[in-house]
Amino acid sequence: MRTSVHTSEAMARRLAKRRAAERRFRAYGIVAITLAILALATLFTSIVGNGYTAFQQTYIALEVTYDPEVLGLGEARDPKALSGANYPGLVKKTMRDMFPDVKGRKDKRALYGIVSSGAAFMIRERLLADPGLVGRTERIRVPADDDIDMLVKGHIDRQVPEAERRVKDNQIGWVETLEEAGRIERRFNTAFFTAGDSREPELAGIRGAAVGSLYALLVTLALSFPIGVAAAVYLEEFAPTNRLTDLIEVNINNLAAVPSIIFGLLGLSIFINFFGLPRSAPLVGGLVLTLMTLPTIIIASRAALKSVPPSIREAALGMGASKMQTITHHVLPLAMPGMLTGTIIGMAQALGESAPLLMIGMVAFIVDIPGGPLDPSTVLPVQIFLWADSPERAFVERTSAAIMVLLAFLITMNALAVVLRRRFERRW
Amino acid sequence: MNVTAERMSISTPHPPTPAGLFPITRSGPESGSEPWADSGPGPLLESEPESAPGLSLEPVPDDIETVGEATVERPRMTSRNVGVMYGDKMGIERVSLDIGSNEVLAMIGPSGCGKSTFLRCLNRMNDTIDICRVSGSIKLDGEDIHDPRLDVVQLRARVGMVFQKPNPFPKSIYDNVAYGPRIHGLVDGRRETDAIVERSLQKAGLWDEVRDRLEQPGTGLSGGQQQRLCIARAIAVSPEVILMDEPCSALDPIATARIEGLIDELRENYTIVIVTHSMQQAARVSQRTAYFHLGRLIEVGETNHVFTNPRHKLTEDYITGRFG
Fold first, then answer.
1. Is residue A198 part of a domain?
2. Residue A199, in any domain of the structure
């Protein structure tokens, strides 16, 4: 065989080197992706591992006799009397009846402590809804106290010395008795989705924060989408290319990189201090998030407009369509999926944002579910921040559960963005 | 430049009456003193009578090196001293050329010679390029197309355009054709729209192929069909002039032959200006041919004349394949 430049030994070495370089490059990529997947997997395992138990709650079945004497009702059955009756006393009486041998103040306190303080409110709600129950006996399920909940779920080690755990030995004894009697059961934790915040973990829920997030996001969407799209269309289609528009473009890109807490400070000084809008309100939160989201939407929308092929514009202009008609009939419909994708990603960012909202007072402890964008409220990420700060073991799992809910929303939104992009992708 | 042939001869005889009123002289003192070079956008001859549209009343500046017959007897469009600057780069300069009614004018020349630039001047598509500046005068039926009173939207309806790459809108075939009539308010109601869509598609020779799938996207057609759809779209607004910018360069020979046949049929009702890289195509479809070189109009004339007996050395070199 004839040796040419391409079959020589030197060439073979060079080829081997080239192949090795290519293999190395691939390996780097695989290592990078593996690391990313590992990090993500660790994150998810830790969150799900910590949080999945929060979707269940321990309930204790109580044999409650609605004794008018214990309730301090006498003969009165009107709503006012019912609403002010002594329900905590009724719960205590029920507990004492269950464990008649418990004597002494300290032990009794410990006994009362195994049911949630919310039990009294539950009974009150029941009686107010149906006053005919007075004098009758029924078996109802009330949430266990968060420490008992943790004990039942196995988060509290029964072998540790009594002084080092939050649950006393006698409480463990009572819980075991109840367990044997089949009076303790774990059920789906509806309160987590239907209640507002609470100091008692077993009563705390994310609904207040979720509704607050919803209002803030509605405000953000209603403002940032039209403003962002209008700005992008103007800059991309109408604005002349000169120093001023260059400056605007640079500054929009800068704004996208500004730390979000700065937007919070801006919102505090402008919307609250200057315009006098209420503190802790989703309206202000939405305004601040609008400022933060706008650059993202403008940049994404401009990219979407740029990607519309010039041949379509030329076709429309060549037909005698005006600039406005070209844009509204052809360019915008084609750019819309990209704009929507950008908007959804911006919204997802806004949903996950907490720092700027701390500055405008959305970090307060608020029990009520907000009824409108002007009511004080908090948002999901800030709720997570608040719970993560709480010392109770039960809040740890609730924090993780709230993170799971937030992540579910974010994943849904991003998936929606992908679907939109796929669905409306046009080929030309 | 090696200009040996007759310089800028206006060989077409002038129509007796108007020419008598407005004498066109090659080197007369009046025309020589006209400030042609400074004429920006705006009506050049305010005094031009409206009763004589379509007549070549404007003298061609006499310092232009164009060889051949730049003017015709009954022009649909006239351009005088047209120059285009892209920033400080010259696109074309001093192009004076008439486009006769119901004729096919082919523009040929090497890449970058300015033939597409000139074509895009004729319906002011160059307006869409920020840095582009057009000077000189272009008239359509005697009206200056840069007249501020003339809406560019209207101009583009009267001077339609077919582009190099077929660019149907990503909409249905029906909507593609109906778009122009709709935005110009030429149709009223579905029945009229249906009629105009059918007529346009028939004229473009596409009707039989798409009559059963008018609701399907125009982008789903083959390249040749797409280009005929673009022609149908252009003629749906009843333009007077159709500009075609290398309409067959993206098509196979069979589709090309169909488009060329179509151009020949369309000549009956429309004036067509076509830019092409194929000299065979220019020879097949056009009556007159203009040869551009480095932003200048070098030679214009009867197509068979230009191809068989070029008068300018550059034209000859190009046609015989010595460059380009």
1. no
2. no
The tokens of A355 are what?
């720092």
Residues on chain B touching A318 (C-beta within 8 angstroms): 123, 125, 156, 160-161, 163, 234
**Whether residue A331 is found in the same domain as residue A415:** yes
- The answer to whether B300 touches B70, Cβ cutoff 8 Å, is yes
pLDDT digits (tens, 9 = 90+) for A37-74: 999 999 999 999 989 999 999 999 998 998 888 888 88
CB distance B219–A314 less than 8 Å? no
Q: Which residues of A touch B170 (CB under 8 A)?
A: 312, 334, 426-428
Which whole-number Å values give the CA distances from A203 to A139, A141, A197, in the listed order? 20, 14, 8
CATH number at residue A230: 1.10.3720.10
* Rounded CA Rg of chain A: 31
Characterise B296 by phi-psi region: left (phi > 0), alpha (psi -120 to 50), beta (else). Answer: beta
Each of the 428 residues of chain A gets a pLDDT tens digit; together they read 566 888 888 899 999 999 999 999 999 999 999 999 999 999 999 999 989 999 999 999 998 998 888 888 888 788 888 888 899 999 999 999 989 888 889 999 999 999 998 999 999 998 888 888 888 899 999 999 999 999 999 888 888 888 888 888 889 999 999 999 989 999 999 999 999 999 999 999 999 999 999 999 999 999 999 999 999 999 998 888 889 999 999 999 999 999 999 999 999 999 999 999 998 999 999 999 999 999 999 999 999 999 999 999 999 999 989 999 999 999 999 999 899 999 999 999 999 999 999 999 888 898 999 998 999 999 999 999 999 998 888 999 999 999 999 999 999 999 988 888 887 765 54
Task: Give the total number of structural domains in chain A.
Answer: 3
Q: What is the DSSP string of A156-172?
A: S-TTS-GGGSSS-HHHH
The H or E element that residue B159 is part of is strand B159-162
Residue B185 CB neighbour total at 10 angstroms = 7
* Record: contact A240-B130, CB cut-off 8 A: yes
A350 plus A249 within the same structural domain: yes
CB atoms within 10 A of CB B91: 24
Contact B281, B260 (CB under 8 A): yes
**Residue A334 forms part of a structural domain:** yes
CATH number of domain containing B113: 3.40.50.300
Phi and psi at residue B241, to the nearest 5°:
-125, 140
Q: Is B237 on the interface with A (CB under 8 A)?
A: yes
CB B262 within 8 A of CB B206: no
B1 assigned to some structural domain? no
Asked if A393 and A416 sit in the same domain, the reply is yes
Q: Are strands B296-302 and B67-68 parallel, antiparallel or unpaired?
A: parallel
Regarding whether A183 and A44 lie in a shared domain, the answer is: no
Does residue B51 form part of some domain? yes
When scoring A313, A319, A324, A427 by the number of chain B Cβ atoms within 10 A, the one with the most, hence best to mutate, is A319
Closest CA to A333 of A294, A303, A305: A305
Range of the domain at B233: 31-319
Write out pLDDT tens, residues A5-21: 888 888 999 999 999 99
CA distance A53 to chain B (A): 52
Q: Are residue A138 and residue A231 in the same domain, yes or no?
A: no
Domain assignment present for B12:
no
Task: Specify whether A293 is located in the same domain as A154.
Answer: no
Predicted complex: ipTM over 0.90:
no
Helices within A99-206 (DSSP H only): 105-112, 118-129, 146-153, 169-180, 191-194
Q: Is residue A266 part of a domain?
A: yes
The total domain count for chain B is: 1
Query: Is A222 in the same domain as A182?
Result: no
The whole-angstrom separation of Cα A14 and Cα A17 is 5
Position B14 in a domain: no
Structural domain span for residue A394: 207-424
